[in-house]
Write a structure and sequence with these properties.
The complex is a heterodimer of chains A (328) and B (370). By secondary structure, chain A is of the alpha/beta class. Helix content of chain A is 34%, strand content 23%. The termini of chain A are far apart. Chain B has 370 residues and is of the alpha/beta class. Helices cover 27% and strands 20% of the residues of chain B. Chain B starts with 39 loop residues before the first strand and ends in an 18-residue tail after the last strand. Residues 1-25 of chain B have low confidence and may be disordered. The chains are: A alpha/beta (328), B alpha/beta (370). Chain A: Residues 14-263 form the ABC transporter domain. Chain A: It is found in: Cell inner membrane.
């Protein structure tokens, strides 16, 4: 099945340019995503790192056009050379699940509790590929085996509540992979899992990604998870990408003060008895459109220039970029 | 504009003094048994939950949430409890707080049996004044209709402190947890961020001047940068108020940072307990080893290629016979199914419930790693 998914040089699988998302309700406006540019090569794993409210999940949903009607989305979203923003409902339903599919943090709420796992996978196959029911059922079994669910045949008839958390997450991955997507979006898929199960699911995702040659965008707040799975990392803060680059360089020394603070304040290894470095304060409210560096109020290096304008993205060499006036 | 004053950091002048501020009636939590006597001793603690089913509502199964747990909490230490979901760590926390009575087992608080006020022990009301708890969900554990100052002052008032005194204390505590009282005292929980709300919960737990604070996943719902702030605060408050902590978490890195001793639970039982360095550097139980090896590494050059364990933890309704970890243990032998491992003493307060750690157990690898 990987033959159709051979990487084509130079055409990025996904291209976001100047994407903005604002949620407008009667009593308030939230500027969730404020100008995101992002590229993903074929077969690449990109981790979007950020804290709650940084816009990472909203960016993913914008890619799927899954945002509610009151969300105003602007900018350009291209996946496999097609303009997602211009798609009709009909095209979208082929696109979702067909070209791009998504896995979520809570498989229990993402799956339908009244249908068996097997039926939910087969439904996606029937819908997108127009095959017979028996062919779809056979494909469902194949997929459960692909995601390494033990006694897969028996599990086809299981309802989501009958599975443990780890198996449920594997089943959701099977649903997502049902139609051989070119791009898999993963929204904190291992956050709700236990430590010993999380590592199993991470390793499975990495293995599947390599086997199927998909592009993966993996949203997480956990630096360790990014270290295990990412090729490239993009850090978001207040709806903007503040740093982007290959994972190894990033982990050994982030350039932007925010990810630097994040890395320092993450407890790891033996830090007993030491005072943890913290980032003072809290992320900004997103009620107004940012007009300057959103991190400046928490930044030890902030100066007047940070508050005058939005800092540009600075090329740092080695495919790394950072959005800080102190860089470059 | 060089530096913006970071909200959430207390000016030094706002720190509470450890004692001498509160009325005599509230300052009676004196050390009774001396520093060597454990603050809390638990012996054979057990809590099973029946599952009712069928037409007659009979008990069809039992969740063995906590099944014979024995440990002590020493004065002034931080005891970390780690384990996966369903291992009984939160039930243990609720038993410690006596939010539910244990089925069997004894709890001794500084030499006095808990809940036996008439028989020479300590009454629950007095016990709960000395033991307080902080929960994971900072929003659910605050009354949404009370300004936070009133939430903090509530417990002291219940325990007989005057209204003005309780309010003063609430404001002092707000300052101690890094929330300037003049701007925060009258706010409602929904007006605060998650980190700020958790600070309020910590302040509320301290309002009765407890000796023991049970922290049940206190930082799990917080973002990393905020988590570090709250952890620093907890370390600071412990010293300032002379507290003892029981810190429950699934995050091994956080537990390593904050604990003096660590207890590893698996399916309602103690798998291993010992000083933090012994547990992290020389883990004796295969489960502890697997748990430690499951931590994602931040270094992409050190990526794992195979998972340390397969499968999920079994259901505590029908735990495996003998050693409960044997179904996932790479070293399991027949003996592990037929007999329950005893707590083997590895010296220095390090105990592990594994046949391999006990040279006399009959396991083929017994004694090899001990």
């Amino acid at each position: 099945m990987s033959a159709a998914l051979k990487p084509e040089a130079a055409t990025p699988l996904m291209r976001l340019r100047d994407v903005h998302v604002t949620f407008q309700t009667r009593d308030r406006t939230v500027h969730a995503v404020n100008g995101v540019d992002m590229d993903l090569a074929q077969g690449e794993v990109l981790c979007i790192l950020g804290e709650s409210g940084s816009g990472k999940s909203v960016t993913l949903r914008a890619l799927m056009r899954l945002l509610p009607k009151f969300a105003k989305v602007s900018g350009s979203v291209e996946v496999a050379g097609r303009d997602v923003m211009a798609m009709s409902e009909r095209e979208l339903s082929r696109y979702r699940g067909g070209d791009v599919s998504m896995i979520f943090q809570e498989p229990m709420t993402a799956m339908d509790p009244v249908f068996t796992i097997g039926r939910q996978i087969a439904e996606a196959v029937q819908r997108h590929e127009g095959v017979s029911r028996s062919a779809a059922d056979a494909r469902a079994l194949e997929l459960l085996e692909l995601v390494q669910i033990p006694s897969a045949k028996r599990r086809l008839a299981a309802y989501p509540h009958e599975l443990s958390g780890g198996l449920r997450q594997r089943a959701m991955i099977a649903v997502a992979l049902a139609c051989k997507p070119k791009l898999l979006l993963a929204d904190e898929p291992t956050t709700a899992l236990d430590a010993t199960v999380q590592i199993q699911v991470l390793l499975l995702l990495r293995e599947l990604q390599q086997k199927l040659g998909m592009g993966v965008i993996f949203v997480t707040h956990d630096l360790g998870v990014a270290g295990e799975i990412a090729d490239r990392v993009a850090v978001m803060y207040a709806g903007k990408v503040v740093e982007e680059g290959p994972v190894a360089g990033f982990m050994s020394g982030p350039a932007h003060p925010y990810p630097r603070g994040l890395l320092n304040s993450t407890v790891h290894g033996n830090m007993r008895g030491k005072k943890l470095t913290t980032i003072p304060g809290a992320p900004p409210s997103l009620a107004t459109k940012p007009m300057n560096c959103s991190f400046a109020p928490r930044c030890a290096l902030a100066e007047q220039a940070c508050l005058d304008a939005i800092p540009p993205m600075v090329e740092l060499g080695g495919d790394r970029r950072g959005r800080c006036i102190k860089l470059g | 504009m060089a530096a913006v004053a970071p909200p959430g950091h207390p000016p030094a002048s706002f720190r509470c003094r450890p004692s001498g501020r509160y009325p005599a009636a509230m300052d009676t939590h004196l050390d009774r048994g001396g520093p060597a006597q454990p603050l809390l001793t638990l012996e054979g603690l057990q809590k099973h939950f029946p599952i009712k089913g069928g037409l007659l509502g009979r008990t069809v199964a039992t969740v063995r949430a906590v099944d014979g747990v024995t440990f002590t909490v020493e004065k002034g230490e931080t005891l970390g409890i780690v384990g996966e979901s369903g291992c009984g760590k939160s039930t243990t926390a609720r038993l410690l707080m006596r939010l539910m009575p244990p089925d069997t087992g004894s709890m001794i608080f500084d030499g006095e049996a808990v809940g036996e006020g008439n028989a020479g022990g300590i009454a629950l009301r007095d016990y709960r004044r000395q033991v307080q708890m902080v929960f994971q969900d900072s929003y659910a554990s605050l009354n949404p209709r009370l300004p936070i100052e009133d939430s903090i002052a509530f417990a002291p008032k219940v325990h007989g402190v005057s209204d003005t005194e309780a309010r003063t204390r609430a404001r002092d505590l707000l300052a101690a947890v890094g929330l300037a009282p003049q701007s925060f005292a009258r706010r409602y929980p929904h007006e605060l961020s998650g980190g700020q709300r958790q600070r309020v919960n910590i302040a509320r737990a301290l309002a009765l001047r407890p000796r023991l604070v049970i922290l049940d996943e206190p930082v799990s719902a917080l973002d990393k940068s905020v988590e570090a702030q709250v952890l620093n605060l907890l370390v600071e408050l412990k010293e300032q108020f002379g507290l003892t902590y029981v810190f429950i978490s699934h995050d091994l890195n956080v537990v390593q940072f904050i604990s003096d001793r660590v207890l590893v639970m698996y399916l309602g039982e103690v798998a291993e307990i010992g000083p933090v360095d012994a547990i992290y550097e020389k883990p004796a139980h295969p489960y502890t080893r697997a748990l430690l090896a499951s931590r994602p590494s931040m270094d992409p050059a050190m990526r794992r290629t195979s998972p340390p364990l397969t499968g999920d933890p079994p259901n505590p309704v029908n735990p495996p016979s003998g050693c409960r970890f044997r179904t996932r243990c790479p070293l399991a032998e027949d003996i592990c199914a037929s007999s329950k491992p005893i707590m083997a003493d590895l010296g220095g307060g390090h105990l592990a419930a594994c046949h391999i750690a006990n040279p006399a157990s009959g396991h083929s690898k017994a004694g090899a790693t001990a």
